[in-house]
Amino acid sequence: MTPNPSDREADAAQAFDSNHNEPPETETDAEAVRELYGHKIMPSAKVTLAEQIHDVLCEEIHSGRWKIGERLPSLSTLVEISGLSRRSLLGALEMLREEGYIRQEERKGTFLSAILPGGRSPRGAVGIVIPAYSPAVSPAYAAWGVGRMHWVQKAAVERNFITEVFCLEEGADPRRIDSVEGPFGSRVKGIISLCPFPHRVERQLPPDRIPIVFAGFENEDCAPSVYGDSLDAVCQLTQQVIARGHRKILFCGSPALTRRESAIRVRGHVEAMREAGLPVDEKAIQRSLEIPAGDLAGHREFLMAFGEEATAIVCATCERAQNFIAVADVLGIRVPEDLSLVAYGPETQMRLNAPGGQIAGISFDTGFIVTTCFDLLLDQVKTRQCPVRRILVNPTVQEGDSLSTPRLGPARLSELVHAVSAGNSETRALAARSR
Fold first, then answer.
1. What's the topology of domain 125-228+365-395?
2. Could you tell me which residues come within 8 angstroms of residue 178 by beta carbon, excluding any fewer than 6 positions away?
3. N or C: where does the chain have the smaller number of CB atoms within 10 Å of the terminal CB?
């Protein structure tokens, strides 16, 4: 796909100007889901837009979209076809230049120099299975997938593998994914799946099957897999809150999780509470599973119904904690002075697009999970055997600014929650923000 000569404009010469004075990305650019060469690019706390663009361009290079020595599209063309900001695209192109993928020739444009950094020769390809993106998918789940994808691509390149990506549409039959006659080409030596699907593991791999490892899923039906121990993670998270002196603790689940994963996280909380001899509010848990992500009015109603005596909430996802913090800001509830919040998930800001500290929580080292996946996968490639069904990874506690010892007791929270009657301006504001 060589651009027309008319694309050779001045911006090609500026593509790697490290002194450019571009303004920061607009709010629209930072929040909207964009698309580049069929790949979704979306907001993520862990992977910048520039890094995601870099990954997409690497994938297109690996797929053979451009040949060595061929001119790449100009910056303005990339802006036009993606809707992404020049700043993000410049950042991605600069990464590619530093790694040796591309070179810039003054007044001529940008050209492909190598398939791998430093001109290294690939030893084959690694297939990556990703779930199809849908606007209905939780933003937190989508961002989680973006982070995993970034780490897998990075690990593949570090091991001199190029990558091939296959998008598994909802409802599609996955049984042929690891078949040599399936969606991946003959150069694919192994597959890492970032979405779960039924897969029977066999100790000795049949000759018509490609080795596969699932990253991040606790599911009896998909193996071999490497994943974080969610039960232990939520149990530790709740124990962390109890250790700070909290006794009235709510758990807020999430309908965005699979039924199995949701049950595991609930169980981890229940076990920690019962071990400490503390009551579990089962009704609150059940109600939380009915509140959609981003429904701030629903989160306020949850606080009004169950939060009279609560001093802390354990959230099944970071998105849940951010929703509660947004509600608290409107109601005048101070976090953590009046209400402590902790969450299961990656390190996350307390407030979207605003300073104000990090959410205290617990998560897993994604880099370690991906590295372990590759070790398991390459061992399968070498031996054609799969002696391991699953590997559990221990969680990592994240210190944050949303957890403290109970200070003013439950009375103040109860007073604040009920100070705003139904239908007033604060309720309308929450409803508007939910939309």
1. Rossmann fold (3.40.50)
2. 191, 199, 209, 210, 211, 212
3. C
- 194/55 Cα distance (integer angstroms): 16
Mean pLDDT of the chain: 85
Domain ranges in the chain with CATH number 3.40.50.2300: 125-228+365-395, 230-362+405-434
Burial class (CB in 10 A: 0-12, 13-18, 19+), 159: middle
- Which single residue is written with the structure tokens 């709740």? 238
Residue 258 pLDDT class (50, 70, 90 cuts): confident
Q: Are strands 340-344 and 312-315 parallel, antiparallel or unpaired?
A: parallel
Tell whether the model's pLDDT for residue 418 goes beyond 80: no
Mapped onto helix, strand or coil, the DSSP state of residue 430 is helix
- pTM, rounded to two decimals: 0.79
Distant-in-sequence, close-in-space partners of 338: CB < 8 Å, separation ≥ 6: 328, 407, 408, 412, 413, 416
DSSP characters over 200-254? ---SB--TTB--EEEES---TTB-SEEEE-HHHHHHHHHHHHHHTT--SEEEE--
Are the C-beta atoms of 43 and 143 separated by less than 8 Å?
A: yes
Report the alpha-carbon distance of residue 144 to residue 181 in Å, rounded.
30
Task: Find how far residue 42's CA is from the centre of its chain.
Answer: 10
**Is the torsion defined by CA of 107, 112, 117, 118 positive or negative?**
negative
Tens-digit pLDDT profile for residues 196-215: 888 988 889 999 999 999 99
Q: How far apart are CA 74 and CA 84, in angstroms?
A: 13
At 298, the amino acid letter reads G
**Residue 307 pLDDT:** 86
CB atoms within 10 A of CB 322: 24
SS (H, E, C) 168-180: ECCCCCCCCCCEC
Decide if 194 contacts 130 (C-beta within 8 A).
yes
**CA nearest 194: which of 128, 251, 133?**
128
Residue 276's nearest CA partner among 322, 241, 226, 319 is 241
Determine the Cα–Cα distance for residues 180 and 84; give it in Å rounded to an integer: 37
CA dist., res. 356 & res. 196, Å (int) = 35
Q: What letter would DSSP give residue 358?
A: B
Kindly report the CATH number that applies to the domain delimited by 5-119: 1.10.10.10
Q: How far apart are CA 262 and CA 214, in angstroms?
A: 19
The CATH architecture that domain 230-362+405-434 belongs to is 3-Layer(aba) Sandwich (3.40)
Give Cα separations from 274 to 8, 113, 239, 279, 361 (angstroms): 68, 61, 11, 7, 20
